[in-house]
Write a structure and sequence with these properties.
mainly alpha, 10 helices, disordered N terminus, disordered C terminus
């Protein structure tokens, strides 16, 4: 596994790639940011010799803590950019939101959810497919206060980053630094997303109906 993606994961550019992917997937949820984070964490386990049967390599490998910090920071920055753009979007954005059932629902319900201490829904949305986009754009479009939204966004980004990195790292420890380990880790990540979407659909005042693709 590590050799297959070594040209990327063995370079400091991996952090830039992770940050860019995570930052942009708030606008393009189809970007495989979770895949990249897990692959980098798997490579880190292989490169440090932590994976089963892995041999430490001579060249540089990603740092687990740096990967978590990079992914979490990029997640919060992406949320903030989407939030501010939606806040300033004006009539054009309002018309675009009105054509989206999910964003319209988010605009109507998110403020109530946050006021009732439902900020944990922001964390759930970070795991659900497209949930991050729905919540960030919905909060900005509805002019919700940044102090009500951003702390939960930060906790959501850190939770998602730590979970994704842990999946890749410990998956490699248990199964070896192989494509099987990466595949199992991705199944666990997508499973968490499906579970988050299910819980959000059942929550009264949830920010939106987010469903798995």
């Amino acid at each position: 596994m590590f050799e297959s993606v070594g040209s990327l994961t063995g370079s400091p550019w991996i952090y830039a790639m992770v940050a860019l992917s995570v930052l942009l997937d708030v606008f393009l949820p189809v970007l495989p940011s979770g895949v990249l984070v897990i692959a980098a964490a798997t490579a880190a386990a292989a490169g440090t010799g932590a994976a089963a049967d892995a041999v430490p390599v001579a060249h540089e490998v990603p740092s687990i803590l740096a990967l978590i910090a990079c992914a979490a920071t990029a997640s919060v920055l992406g949320d903030l950019v989407a939030y501010r753009l939606a806040w300033r979007g004006g009539a054009r954005l309002d018309r675009a939101i009105s054509r989206s059932r999910r964003l319209t629902t988010a605009q109507e319900r998110l403020g109530v959810a946050l006021a009732r201490g439902g900020g944990a829904l922001v964390i759930l949305a970070r795991f659900a497919p497209a949930g991050r986009s729905v919540v960030s754009l919905g909060a900005g479009a509805a002019h919700r206060r940044a102090r009500d939204f951003l702390p939960w966004s930060a906790l959501a980004g850190l939770s998602w980053a730590a979970y994704s990195v842990a999946l890749g790292y410990y998956g490699a420890q248990w199964l070896g630094a192989t494509w099987l380990a990466t595949g199992v880790s991705l199944v666990a990540l997508f499973g968490a997303g499906a579970g988050a979407a299910y819980v959000m659909r059942r929550q009264p005042g949830a920010p939106a109906e987010v469903s798995a693709p």
